[in-house]
Each structure stands twice: as C-alpha cells, then as structure tokens.
Amino acid sequence: MKKVILSFVLVVMMAMLGLSLASAQEATADPAKAGWPETFIIGVYPGDNVEKAIEAQEPLRAYLEKTLGVRTVVITGTSYGAVVEAMRAGRADAFEVGPFSYVLAADVANAEAIAVGNYVTKVDTTVLPGYYSVMFTKKGSGIKSIADLKGKTFAFTDPASTSGYLVPATDILNDQKFDSKDQLDGFLAQATFAGSHPASVLSVNNGTTDAGATFDDNLVDQANADIAICGVDKGTAKGTEIFHSLMTQEQIDKVYADCPDGSIAVFHQSPLIPQTPFAVSKNLPQSFRDAVKTALLSIKDDQTLVDSLGRFYIDPTTIDSSLKTIDNMYDPLRVIAKKLDLDLSAK
Predict the structure, then answer these.
(1) Does residue 104 sit within a domain?
(2) Cα separation of 210 and 228, whole Å?
(3) Which of 54, 223, 254, 334 has the fewest Cβ atoms surrounding its Cβ within 10 A?
(4) Per residue in 127-152, is it b (16+ CB within 10 Å) or e — as a string?
(5) Are residues 259 and 193 in the same domain?
(6) CA distance 39 to 36
(7) Is the dihedral of CA 187, 192, 194, 196 positive or negative?
(8) What is the pTM of this model?
(9) Which of 273, 295, 326 is the last residue of a domain?
(10) Among the ranges given (46-50, 86-90, 171-175), the one the predictor scored with the smallest mean pLDDT
(11) Which of 7-11, 113-117, 142-146, 182-186 has the lowest mean pLDDT?
C-alpha cells in the first residue's frame, strides 16, 4: 500500500514539475515571435486539378513549416478572386495567384509582396523574373495575327488572370487602336472565359473556340499532355521553351509557317509580364513577415529544394535600383487596369 501511495505521489510531483516547466517555457517564449500565427495559411488557385496543385506546393509548405517553426497549410480557391477574398476576410495569410491578382489584393486585402518567384531551376539572381502571355490558334483557322481575330471566337481564362485576360485584352486594344474594352465585343464574335489556362488551350484544340490566350509555360504542360503545340516538344522543361524568351514577330511567324494544320500555333507574344509575387497580409506581425521573406530568399542556396519546387525567390529591388519597393514592379499592371477601366477597389 505504501508503495502505491509513493508511486502516486511521484506521479503527481512529476506532473506538477511538467506544468512548471511548461509555464516557464511559455513565460520565456521568444519575444521576437510575439503575435506570430499558430497556423500560417497559404492560398493558391489550383485550376482544374486541386490534388496536383497541393502536391506541387508541398515542398514549399514543408520547408516554411520547418524553417519558421509554425504549422503551415495550403488552401485552394475556386478562382483567383476567391483566393484574394480569402485574404481580405482573414482566411488566408499569404498567396501566389498571379501578378494582377496581387495588384487587386494590395488594394482590397492589405497584401504586401515580399519576394518574387523565378520559375526556373538554374539560379540566376541578376535577372528580373517574368513571363509572357501568348495568343494561339489551331493551324488552318486562317488566324495569323490579332487583326485576323475580327469576327472570331476567343477563349480567355479568368477575368482576374494577368496572362489569360488582362494582358491579351490590352494587346488587342492597342493593336486595333481601340479606346475602350467595350470595342472588343464588336471586334470578336464572342469572348468566353474558359476558367483556367489548360481549359483555354483545350477549348481551341477541341474546336470550341477559334483562338485563345495563356502563359508561356502552360504550353509545356499541354504539350506534355499530348497536345500538339508547334515550337514546344513533349518533354521540354518549363522555362526553356522558345516562347519563354522574348521573340521577334518574324521568329514567331517562322514557327507558325512551319506548323502543320491541326496543331496549336502561337501567333502573338506579349511584352514581358512581371512574375507572380509571394504576398502576405500586412496584418501579420512585421517580424513574421520578415522571417517568411528571409526563408523564401534562402531557397536559392539549396539546389535540391530549388529542383523540387521548380523555382527560387528574389527581391527585385536588389536587381533594379529604380524599384523603391517590390510593389513598384507591378505598376505597369495598374496602367493596364486603368485602360481596361477596372475598379481595383471593388470588393
């Protein structure tokens, strides 16, 4: 009986000691981490494949969770706008959903760009990361230029997509010297939103629409999905395809001319678009935002991690001295928003 009582006393003493240690640890918690979230929530737009999108984000999620010492999760939205709304409503702390969506979120969701991803695996911190919007058709449609789109059907991707709507719509306005986006309705027979970048390519490939728009690297994904795309062979690595580099119209026309009927052919490439930023909510403590930025910028030093992510991150202000902040890199998109008469303050 005495042994039982002694054992009970020891258990109680150990429990009390554990509580004391826990209290001590809580009392001596790192003051630099005051106010840090218990869970860091990153929002993404998955397009047509939620599982694939979450799987693609897993190396980054795991890295940030380990580096920050904070539980990190990835959530998805049904559109670019849905992810922006999640941050505005406090349901997401960060996101990577496209340059224009960032411009919108900076205005309505208190978002701050802290780093910019460069979606290649060969690390070069001297080059500003960017990409291109391309317009394409099925060879044999008779469409060889923007002018040929008159009276044709066209598949944009999403109203908030930079490369899938905002930039190509602006390129059409500029090419045709239109003053208003309303003039697009009279120029195109019909403009639709396919819902995602893969869906835009499929719409043209299946003959649903005459032409469409997407971003350069999506051509690689679709070529790897066995869609015949001239200039992009199956197995091509992202960031290495010809449309990922600035091309002259003569070079584009040459690829088009060599393209067989029935294959997807690019006929227009946009000016360089600033790459998608990693944006966080300004409602997070400054110390936490700084820690996330430091973690992102350190990825370039781990080639294995770069390879698994398919990208690394930079601070563009260290490359272009004219940029006072990373946010300034997206000012040209604000000019596009004005041309398209888009209300960035709309909730």
Answers:
(1) yes
(2) 16
(3) 254
(4) eebbbbbbbbbbbebebbebeebeeb
(5) yes
(6) 9
(7) positive
(8) 0.72
(9) 273
(10) 46-50
(11) 7-11
Rounded CA-CA distance 11/182 in Å is 77
Last residue of a domain, one of 273, 295, 321: 273
User: Residue 345 has what pLDDT?
Assistant: 53
Instruction: Kindly state whether residues 166 and 210 are assigned to the same domain.
Output: yes
Instruction: Write out pLDDT tens, residues 75-133.
Output: 999 888 899 999 999 999 999 988 888 998 998 999 999 999 998 899 999 988 999 99
Alpha helices in 96-180 (DSSP H): 99-108, 167-176
Look up the domain containing 45 and give its range.
Answer: 36-126+275-339
Beta strands in the chain (DSSP E): 39-44, 71-76, 94-95, 111-118, 130-131, 133-138, 153-156, 190-193, 211-215, 264-269, 273-274, 277-281, 312-314
Does residue 253 share a domain with residue 153? yes
Closest CA to 342 of 163, 114, 216, 162: 162
Residue 71 is assigned to a structural domain of this protein: yes
Query: At residue 145, what are phi and psi to the nearest 5 degrees?
Result: -155, 170
Give per-residue pLDDT as tens, 216-269.
999 999 999 999 999 999 998 887 889 988 899 999 999 999 999 999 999 999
**Which CATH number fits the domain that encloses residue 317?**
3.40.190.10
Are 190 and 298 found together in one domain? Answer: no
- The verdict on residue 20 lying in a domain is no
**CA–CA distance, 139 with 156 (Å, rounded to integer):** 18
User: Based on the domain organization, do 209 and 161 belong to the same domain?
Assistant: yes
24 is a domain residue? no
Following DSSP, what letter does each residue of 232-300 receive, concatenated? B-TTPPTT-SGGGS---HHHHHHHHHTPPTTSEEEEEEPSPEEPPEEEEETTS-HHHHHHHHHHHHTGG
- 338 vs 204, residue with greater confidence: 204
Q: For the chain, what is the domain count?
A: 2
With CA atoms as reference, report the closest residue to 221 among 199, 204, 249, 206: 199
